[in-house]
Design a protein that fits this description.
Keywords: ATP-binding, Membrane, Nucleotide-binding, Transmembrane, Transmembrane helix. It is found in: Cell membrane. It holds the Pfam family ABC_membrane. The protein has two domains: 328 residues, Up-down Bundle (ABC transporter transmembrane region fold), CATH 1.20.1560; 251 residues, P-loop containing nucleotide triphosphate hydrolases (Rossmann fold). The protein is built from 21 helices and twelve strands. The strands form three sheets. A six-stranded mixed β-sheet has the order 8-9-10-5-11-12, with helices on both faces. Strands 4-3-6-7 form a four-stranded antiparallel β-sheet, covered by helices on one side. The protein has a two-stranded antiparallel sheet with strand order 1-2. Helix content is 62%, strand content 10%. The chain binds adenosine-5'-triphosphate (ATP). The site of adenosine-5'-triphosphate (ATP) has 10 residues, from helix 12.
């Protein structure tokens, strides 16, 4: 497996480079326009403050001589009274439009990015190897898709461009200050290292808190989903209060991290304010002294102090943004790590399609282990050889944990063999195109899954090329049509999580109808009738027998009564084929199969010996 970079190890430059390449570079025009708007808004903030100087000198200092506006126009007292307020409103209007334009563009871009990340994450998840999906709780995926992607957006939205706006305001204001009085501006500069130090300190704290909060968000999603999945067990064991306490613990842990992060954010602002006010005090002292010397006029002083306060404001925003950014970047690191995992089960570059027609399945000396082999640990499958000719039905039986389900998982390449090969018509399935391989296989499982959609859509699942008549024909063949038409909306009744509840037998028959419609030459049946009552079982069994006609069928059955008509039975024990043959021969051999058959007749199932 390609090991992704550990979330913390991706350097910042590489991370930003990737965000740019993958998400921003496609929207260059919008981004540049937003940046320009932000720049205009930032510069105009400084201009508005710069207007303080002519305003104070022209309007409040009587007999101060003509006032110069933007160093270009000379105004007398009467003109100043009319033009300075008008100029302020005009500049403020342009600034408002620039600021609103920037926000609108950035919101669109930001939400576009979240959507994009969410779709890419889902695409990576749904294509991931079964082994990986099984190794992680689905809550973790949900949390990444829902929370982490939004943190990245927040960092981007309130980050990149607001950074530009406040950063530019800061720069413009500082330049203006240098223009008014460079010595005073130098005093201001002394505050910068102190602010940088504060930013660093709080940034580190926020990042740590963000990592903790993300991990706990994952734990929370997992706990919620687990509780919903296991609600019956929780109720029957009266564990509601205990589960509530467990979830409360996760919530409290998450809260601790979130509060730490929020506090770091909340303290960073006032801490840099403290620096800003210290600088204001220093400036006051210096400027007051200058004014007493007659070097600085009151208008310049007012503008300077106004700018200083504005610089403090912008600095505070930048401080806040730094923490939002560090959260977003932490999330981005996690997201990229998740996106970068390459599935191991991939199509070979030379993969071919299987020619149409009947299919013969062979497991050729197959060995398999879920985890890399360790000394003294036996593989899950050990040199297994199975042959299914077109039209044949082959059954797998044996004690629990023998490897039956594992064999079924190997055929559609949910897992790849670690030794030997699975062949369809003589071709190693690893040399076949993956979608083509799966097109050749229909799978009916013990507990068929229904989507939250109509019955018709569930039967057709994903097939757009089938008519209602074909869906109904499949349902009839699966003995499902009669019960479907009896449902409130017939084929348009919603099934699945939020739809009508169907019985186990009804769900089975919908799954069988799905398999009829797929009409694949290879059929995998996993305990298809084990959970049913006698009447349902008879209906399902009859439907299955029709489905098996002409296909290479590999079936697992615990109840031997369902496999006695199989062409061949393989008895698996501890990952090895210990017996094989027809039912009668195996009973006559008096080995494991015969023993299992005897046990089952004691359990009330029809005695195999008498049936045989
Ligand atoms: N995803 C997995 N990861 C690791 N080990 C697994 C996994 N699935 C199954 N196993 C192990 O592989 C062995 C074979 O399991 P398998 O489910 O194939 O047996 P089975 O014959 O189908 O059992 P049962 O009749 O109880 O369903 C067991 O020891 C099981 O613990």
């Amino acid at each position: 497996m390609t090991v992704p970079a550990a979330p913390e190890s991706l350097p910042l430059r590489a991370l930003l480079g990737r965000i740019w390449r993958d998400y921003l570079s496609r929207n260059k025009l919008a981004l540049v326009t937003a940046m320009i708007c932000a720049g205009v808004a930032g510069a105009l903030s400084a201009v508005l403050l710069g207007l303080l100087e002519p305003a104070v000198n022209g309007l409040f200092v009587p007999g101060g001589g003509p006032v110069r506006l933007f160093n270009m126009v000379s105004l007398n007292d009467a003109q100043a009274l009319a033009w300075i307020p008008v100029t302020i409103v005009a500049v403020a209007m342009v600034r408002t439009f620039a600021s609103a334009g920037q926000s609108a563009l950035i919101n669109r871009l930001g939400h576009g990015i979240v959507g994009d990340i969410q779709v890419r994450l889902f695409a990576a998840m749904i294509r991931a190897d079964l082994a990986r999906l099984r190794a992680q709780h689905s809550g973790a995926f949900v949390s990444t898709v829902l929370y982490d992607a939004n943190l990245v957006r927040e960092a981007f939205t309130s980050g990149v461009v607001n950074y530009t706006q406040h950063g530019l305001t800061l720069i413009a204001v500082i330049l203006y200050m240098f223009w008014i009085d460079w010595k005073l501006a130098m005093v201001v500069m002394l505050g910068i290292p102190a602010v940088a130090l504060i930013l660093r300190r709080f940034g580190r704290k926020t990042r740590k808190a963000a990592r903790g909060a993300m991990a706990e968000s994952e734990a929370l999603s997992t706990a919620l989903m687990e509780n919903l999945d296991g609600v019956r067990l929780i109720k029957i064991e009266n564990r509601e209060a205990a589960e509530e306490a467990r979830v409360a613990q996760v919530v409290a842990r998450r809260q601790r991290h979130v509060i730490k992060g929020a506090n770091a954010r909340a303290f960073a602002g006032p801490a840099s304010d403290l620096v800003a006010y210290s600088v204001v005090a220093a400036v006051m002292a210096y400027a007051g002294w200058q004014a007493q010397q007659g070097v600085m006029d009151v208008g310049e002083f007012a503008a300077f102090i106004g700018m200083l306060l504005a610089a403090g404001q912008s600095l505070r925003q930048v401080t806040n943004l730094a923490t939002v950014m560090s959260e977003g970047l932490t999330a981005a690191r996690r997201l990229f790590a998740a996106l970068d995992i390459q599935p191991e089960i991939r199509e070979a570059s030379h993969a071919a399609a299987l020619p149409p027609g009947p299919v013969e399945v062979v497991l050729d000396d197959v060995s398999f282990a879920y985890a890399p082999s360790r000394e003294g640990v036996a593989p899950t499958l050990d040199h297994v050889a199975i042959h299914i000719a077109p039209g044949e039905t082959v059954a797998l039986v044996g004690p629990s944990g023998g490897g039956k389900s594992t064999i079924l998982s190997l055929l559609p390449r949910f897992y790849d063999v670690t030794g030997g090969a699975v062949r369809l018509n003589g071709v190693d399935i690893r040399d076949l195109q993956l979608p083509d391989l799966r097109d050749h296989i229909a799978l009916v499982t013990q507990e068929p899954f229904l989507f939250d959609d109509t019955i018709a859509a569930n039967i057709a699942y994903g097939r757009t090329d089938v008519s209602q008549d074909q869906i109904e024909a499949a349902a009839r063949a699966a003995a499902a049509h009669d019960f479907i038409v009896g449902l409130p909306d017939g084929y348009d009744t919603r099934a699945g999580e939020a739809g009508v509840r169907l019985s186990g037998g009804q769900r089975q028959r919908i799954a069988i109808a799905r398999a009829f419609l797929k009409d694949a030459p290879v059929l995998l049946l996993d305990e298809a009738t084990s959970a049913l009552d006698t009447e349902s079982e008879a209906l399902v069994q009859a439907a299955l027998e029709r489905l098996m006609q002409g296909r290479a069928t590999l079936m697992i059955a615990h109840r031997l009564s369902t496999v006695r008509n199989a062409d061949r039975i393989y008895v698996l024990d501890g990952g090895r084929v210990v017996e094989q043959g027809a039912h009668d021969d195996l009973v006559a051999q008096g080995g494991l199969y015969a023993r299992l058959a005897r046990q089952q007749s004691l359990d009330g199932a029809p005695s195999l010996e008498t049936v045989a």
